[in-house]
Amino acid sequence: MTRASRQPSRRETYKGQSSSSLASKKLNRQHISISLCISIIVVFIGAIQLISTFHTYAVNLSELNGLKNQQAVLLEQKRQLENDIARWDDQAYVTAQARDRLGFVFPGEQAIRVLHPEAVTGGQPSQAHKQREVDAEQSQTSLPWYREMAYSLGKADAPSSQHSSDSRQVNSNREGNTTQRNTDGDTQPRK
Question: Among 62, 65, 125, 185, which one has the highest count of C-beta atoms within 10 angstroms of its own C-beta?
Answer without folding.
Answer: 125
